[in-house]
Structure formats: C-alpha cells, structure tokens
Amino acid sequence: MSIKKRIMSILVILTLLLLILSGGLSAYLYQKAIMEKVTAGYGILKTAEKFIDPEKYMTLVEKQDPKNPYYLEIGKTFQEIVDANDILYIYSESLNKDGNTIYVLDTVTDVADATLGDVVNETEVMDTKELLETLSKGTNNYSIDKTKEYGTILSCYTPIKSDDGKVIGVLSLDLKMKEVIKDAVRSIMKVVGIILLLCIFMSVFMYYILDKHISKPILQFAGNLEVITKGDFSNSLPKSLCEGKSEIAKLAKAFERMRLYICELITNIRAEADTIRNAIEQVNLETDKLNYEIKGAADITNQLAGGMENTSYSAQSIEHASNEIAEVARNIAMRSQEGVEHSTNITERARETQRGVENSILEANKIRTEINAQLSEAFSRIEVLDKISVLSEAIMSITSQTNLLALNASIEAARAGESGRGFAVVANEIGTLANQSQKNVLEIQEVLEEVYTATKFLTDSARFSLSFIENEVFKDYNKLSDVAMNYNNDAAFVNELVSDFSATSEELLASIENILNAISQVTEASEEGTAGTKNIVDRNKTIILNSNNVTKEMSTVINSINALLEHTSKFRV
C-alpha cells in the first residue's frame, strides 16, 4: 500500500472517529434536551404540588366523590397549568383500599374520560406500586413511553406526601416528545454540520499537506530511485528534498549518504579488484619462478641423491677392502705371535748354548778323555743350527709378506684420502719394522753361515786337532763363547723386535677395526642421506603440484574479479 493510500485511510479513520464523536454528541444533546424537559416538568410539578392539600386529597381517595368542590377546583388549576406550559395533562394516582391504582386528580378536560376512582390500566403505564416504592426513597423519576394517541411521551413523576412525610400518591405530568426530538435534532444537525465542515476542511488541508510535503517529494524520490535501479549513481537528490527536519528529509539525507557510500564502495571495489588482479598476476609470475627454482632444486637433489648413492657404494667398497686388510692384519698378528714364540725358543736355546760353552770351558780339562763324546755332542748341536736356519728363512718370509701388506695398506690409505692418513703412517711404520727385521735376519744368517763354517772346520779338523787341544782348545772355546754370546744377544733382539712387531700388529688391527666402524657409520649416513634426498625430491614434487593448484585457483580468482569488474562497470559513479 502506498503512503498516499495509507494517509487517506488515516483520514477516513479520522472521519469515522469524528462521525462517532458526532453520534456521541448527538446522543448527549438528545439526552440533554430530555433532561431539560424533565427539569422543566419537575418545576411544573412542584408548582402543581403547591395546590394539593394532603388531608383533602386523602378524603378524595377514600370517598371518591367527583362533585367535591376541592376536586373541581384542583381540576381547573391543573388545566390552567397545562394551558400555560403546553403540556398534555397533569394527573395524580393513588392506591385504594383494595390495592388498585385509581385516578384521583386530573385536568378539567379529562374529567369525562377518567373520573375520580377509575382504575388505571397499568399495561400502558408504569406500575404505580413500583413507582410509589421508588418515590418513597426520596427521588424523582421519569419515563418515556409510547401511546397510540400521542405517540412517544415523556412522563415525570413526583410524590404526594402527607403531613407526616408518608407518600400517599403520585403526581404525574405528560409531555409530547415530538417537540423535544425536534429541538434535539436541530442541535444535532448543527453539531454534525460543524463536524462535517471540519472533516472537509481537514481532508482538504491534509490532502494539500500530503501532496506538497509527501506525495511530490516521494515522487521525486521514486524518480531518482528509478534512475539508480538502472545502475546510475551519479545523480544526487535535489537539495529541496534534503532540507528540513521532516521524515522525508531525513530519509533523503540517509539515501544521499547511502548513494555516496555506494559510489565510494563501487570505486573502491574497482580499485581493489585491479590491485588484487595485479597482485595475483605478480603471484603467478613469482609462482612460475618458484616452480622453476623448485625444479632446479629437485634436479640438484636428484644429483645429490646419485652422489650419495655413489658415496655409499664407495664406502661399502672401502669397507670391503678394509675388512680384507683387517683379515691380513689378523694373520700378521697371529704370525707375529708365532714369531714371538719361536724367537723365545731361539733365545732360550742361545742361552743354553752359551751355558754349554761356558761349562765346556770350565770342564775342558776334565773331559779331555771324553773329546770324542763331546765332538759327537757337538755334531748333534749342528742340527739345532739347521733349525735356526729354517726359522730365519720363515722370518724372512714373514717380513716379505709384511712389506707387501704395508705396501697394500699404503695404497688403500692413499685411496681413502684424509681419513686414511693415520692408517698410512701405521703402514709405513710396519714396513720400516719389516725391513729392519729382514736386515737382522740377514745378520743372523751370516752368523749361522760362520757357525756352519766353524763346525765344518771343526768336523774336518777334529781328528787332526786332538794334539792341539791343550794349546788351542781354550782359544777356540773362547771364540765359541763369544759367538754364543752374540747369538744370544741377536736372539734377544729378534725376540724384542718380533714382540714389538706383534704389539704393533695388534694396534694396527684395532685401528683397522675403528676405521671399519667409521666406514660403517659413513655408509649408514650415506644411506640416510640418500633416503633424505629422495624424500626431498618427493616433497619437491608435492610442492610443485600444490603450486600448480594455487596457480589454477588464482586463475579462478582472476576470472571472478573480471566478472566483478564487469558487473561494477554497469554502475555510473
């Protein structure tokens, strides 16, 4: 419903309210006219009441004599009052001894119609008994009744009291309501006319106000809204609409603020959309660069993974070679331990030889006769020299193998680089010890050669030197003692050398085991590094996939922004 229709509805409601008010006023005026007549009737009744003598009135009630002079006199008086006040008639009623209502006093004109003592027909008028009870309470009463002869009449009642205050009858007065209604209608018509004129004036005035201050501004407002619905926010409302403090002005001001805000909002949306589109394009460029860098990093990571695999393979190869070196070192250690045992035996035998020579020197004089036996014993000692020769050849073989192992260890240490430097030092020391052992063994062999020579000479010359034992034997024994002492010293030196070589072999074995542990850790680290680089490659692939998804989402956002710009381009600001 439009505002104009609403206001017209309000005017109709106001008109109805005024009509209801006019009806109320009409009822009030009608009631007022009746009350004025009632008041006037009571005044007339008070005047007529003055002519009533209670004693004479009771006599009339009791005897009911129509020729009573008092009755005739009162009838004339009532007639004069009726004629003077333009009323229908005045009369009185009372109860006879039978309890029936009878006419007592009346106007002269009514004497022939209702004489004294006639019983009243109470179906047409108010019950006299009830009326007497009401009037006995000290209040007047009236009623409006319809009659066949006079139509609607107004009846006023007042009590007739005896000297002691007892109600002995009812004095009534009847008026025609026609005149009362005419007066009331005249008053009502005046009021209704005034109200109608007021309604017409208010309607015209409200229509003028509505048209000037509501309809026209709203039409202007609707015209601007029609333009705005087409997307044109550039036209502002007329200043006349925004001036003043009316609701329309407040609405126009609020609408103008809204229009300016929407214009600013659309402008900001366009600017922000351009900014977002540029930012997304820049993000796409940076994403492409990031994808390129990630692919490069993935390639490098793949190369790194390959290098880590090669490193792991090399570490495994080094570990295998180191295991072989460790096995060789264990063999060297075992052989060294055997050499220690043999050198101990050699030392013990050299000591025994030295002791035997010394004993021979001490007992040479005692066993001259037993030289043959001693020579036989000397011949048996030559077999010990053969064993010594065999042992020296074994030691020479061990030292040759040791040199070969030291060379192989140096080569493997050179391959290991920085981590094999300590191992190379140990290998060089082992080689040096092996060379020194070889030199000592050569010296021993030279000594053995001399011993062989001496024993051979002894064997060949024993039979020819028996005559010279006394002069030459001590000299030969001394030489033999010296040789035995040197042999004993050389054997002790070899024992010490082989012991050192065994200890060095043990240390070398421990170092090789440490190297093996380090190489194993390097292998494990290489394998972990390989797994890590593969994980990095997989993550790089995931990042590239997510980056491509982001690029797709950015494309969707750009399409949305373009659609938003296309929609906002329809607005003019």
Automatic annotation (TrEMBL):
Pfam families in the cross-refs: MCPsignal
A GO term for molecular function: transmembrane signaling receptor activity
Alphabetical keyword list: Membrane, Transducer, Transmembrane, Transmembrane helix
UniProt KW Transmembrane keyword: yes
Domain annotation HAMP: ranges: 212-267
Transmembrane annotation, as ranges: 188-210
Domain Methyl-accepting transducer stretches: 279-537
Gene Ontology CC annotations of this record: membrane
Biological process per Gene Ontology, one example term: signal transduction
Similarity comment: Belongs to the methyl-accepting chemotaxis (MCP) protein family.
PANTHER family, per database record: LYSOZYME-LIKE PROTEIN-RELATED, METHYL-ACCEPTING CHEMOTAXIS PROTEIN MCPB
UniProt protein name: Methyl-accepting chemotaxis protein
Organism, scientific name: Anaerosacchariphilus polymeriproducens
